[in-house]
Design brief:
By secondary structure, this protein is mainly beta. The chain has one domain: Beta Barrel (Thrombin, subunit H), CATH 2.40.10. The protein is 10% helix and 42% strand. It is built from 3 helices and 10 strands. The strands form 2 sheets. A 6-stranded antiparallel beta barrel has the order 2-3-4-7-6-5. It has a two-stranded antiparallel ribbon with strand order 8-10. Strand 2 and strand 3 form a beta hairpin. The radius of gyration is 17 Å and the shape is globular. The protein starts with 8 loop residues before the first helix and ends in a 7-residue tail after the last helix.
C-alpha cells in the first residue's frame, strides 16, 4: 500500500495554482507584442480581463509568442512597462494572453474588499506602495530609466 500523499498531475491541473488572487478588470490598454511569426504587432485597445500582484491577462486578436516580452502602455493611466508572456490560448476568435510583470513592475492588491470588476482608472490611482496601484520596486528609478523603462508616476 502506497503512502505517497503527493497529488497526481491531473489533480494539480484541476486546482488553481496561482500565487495570488486575480481581480476582474474592466478597461483597455495599448499592447505591443511579437506575433508567432516574429513580426511586431500593436493593438491600441486590448481588453484587460484580470490583474494580480504579479501580472495580468488581456485579449488580443492574434497570438503572442510565449516567453516573449510585451509592452504595456496607457497614456490615460500613466502606465508604461513590460511583461513576459506566460501563456496564450485561443478563446473563440480572440486569444487570451497571460503575462507576468518584469523589471519590478507590480500591482498591489487592495487591502479592503472591492467590488469587481475593478475599473482601469482604479489600477493607477495611487503612485506609491498603497494598495490598488502599479509600482516599480526592484531597481532604482535612474537605473530603470537608463534602460528605457518609464514609470507609472
Amino acid at each position: 500500500m502506497s503512502t505517497n500523499v503527493t497529488p497526481s498531475w491531473s489533480a494539480l491541473k484541476r486546482k488553481d495554482l496561482r500565487r495570488a488572487r486575480r481581480y476582474a478588470v474592466e478597461g483597455t490598454l495599448r499592447v505591443s507584442w511579437l506575433g508567432v511569426t516574429g513580426s511586431l504587432m500593436m493593438l491600441n485597445h486590448a481588453r484587460v480581463l484580470n490583474i494580480c500582484e504579479d501580472g495580468l491577462a488581456f485579449e488580443l486578436p492574434e497570438p503572442a509568442l510565449q516567453g516573449s516580452r510585451v509592452k504595456l502602455q496607457s497614456d490615460k493611466h500613466r502606465l508604461l512597462g513590460e511583461a513576459s508572456v506566460r501563456h496564450c490560448r485561443r478563446e473563440g476568435a480572440k486569444y487570451v494572453i497571460g503575462v507576468e510583470f518584469v523589471d519590478g513592475l507590480r500591482w498591489k492588491a487592495p487591502e479592503d474588499p472591492v467590488s469587481e470588476p475593478i475599473q482601469m482608472s482604479d489600477l493607477s490611482s495611487v503612485a506609491d506602495d498603497r494598495p490598488g496601484g502599479l509600482s516599480h520596486k526592484a531597481k532604482p528609478r535612474a537605473a530603470l530609466k537608463a534602460r528605457g523603462v518609464s514609470f507609472l508616476f
